[in-house]
Amino acid sequence: MAIKIAFFNHKGGVSKTTSVYNVGWMLTQKGKKVLLVDADSQCNLTLTVIGEDEYENFKNQSGDDLKTALAPAFESRPELIKPVDCLNVKNNADLFLLPGSFEITEYEVQLGVSFQLSNSFSTMKNLPGSFNFLIEKTAERYNIDFILIDVNPSLSAINQVLLISSDYFIVPTSPDYFSKMAIRSLSRILPAWERWAKQARDLFSDSTYPLPHNTPKFLGYTVNDFTIKYGEPAQAFQNIINSINQLINEEMIPSLKKAGMLLEESAYADHEYCLAKISNFHTLQAKSQEFGVPVYQLTNQQIGATGPVLKTQQDNREKFKALFSNFADKIINMIPND
């Protein structure tokens, strides 16, 4: 069974999509087959893979995306959900994309109504588990090892069901005041979602698409998009990074532990919950988006610079390659090998 990891924070601008894409690609370099799931209605992950110019052609020719694939459940069709014909990502034979849909939010109201545990309509009971059924069946088709799920920055019903259906989750953050507020909020919300799921898993067990009987576990958090000065985060950023770490340890960890949403303590080396500190990509980000490859896969020609500027960009490229390699290793090593 493929391992499902949701990258979730209801605060925007924390590099969820960038992290999913870069670490997903790196996992393939470690010999893993990876499925990227674009569950964000902004479809940034899909646009990164396909390109904005080609997206309309994709919709016209195929249209096989998250919303279309879920239609049998949400439109009460007399047919089972089928696996998606995924896209290969940039000639990487081990990396696949389940494309997103700008219209996926149209399912929000129905899904939210289905969350009422007293709901007796059998077709409504099928909705919460339909996302997981689709993702798992698609992963089986491609013999996937890791599923990385990119969600939108909100406390939506779709995010809730994707989070509680995952095996693990990672919380990307950025060094700003609003990330600190989000951590406090998530410390309350995530356990509340799991409490709902504990009842829903049993009450919806007889549905066509039951919820998986697992409690999602916190792998850790990341800090993204800060400026480096003399090889370290600039002092203003470092102060907030320290505050985020303190909040994680003092508020989120105790709350998740009480809800059973942590791994064994030995899985977190020296009680360190930060998986990666990823500075601003600067000009490499634009090149990465232009060519649709991770920053560490950019060629010298794609970087398009010469002399000292090229040397600096090459050094940055190698730094990010080592950083994401370490990030991927942590994910692989932290997950129990059952």
Give the tags:
338 residues, alpha/beta, Rossmann fold, 13 helices
- For CATH, the homologous superfamily is named as P-loop containing nucleotide triphosphate hydrolases
* Name of the CATH first level: Alpha Beta
- How would you sum up the major sheet? 8 strands, mixed
The helical percent reads 40-55%
Q: Which residues sit in consecutive blocks of at least 5 with pLDDT less than 50? A: none
Structural class: alpha/beta
Shape: globular
Write a brief caption for the model.
With 338 residues, the chain is of the alpha/beta class. The protein is built from 13 helices and ten strands.
Write a structural description.
It is a single chain. The chain has 338 residues and is α/β, with parallel strands linked by helices. It has one domain (3-334): Rossmann fold, CATH 3.40.50.300. Helices cover 49% and strands 15% of the residues. The protein is built from 13 helices and 10 strands. The strands form 2 sheets. Strands 3-4-2-5-1-6-7-10 form an 8-stranded mixed β-sheet, sandwiched between helices. The chain has a two-stranded antiparallel sheet with strand order 8-9. Strand 8 and strand 9 (232-233) form a beta hairpin. Helix 1 packs across helix 13, helix 4 crosses helix 7 (127-141) and helix 9 (177-203) packs parallel to helix 10. The longest helix has 28 residues, at 307-334. The termini are close together.
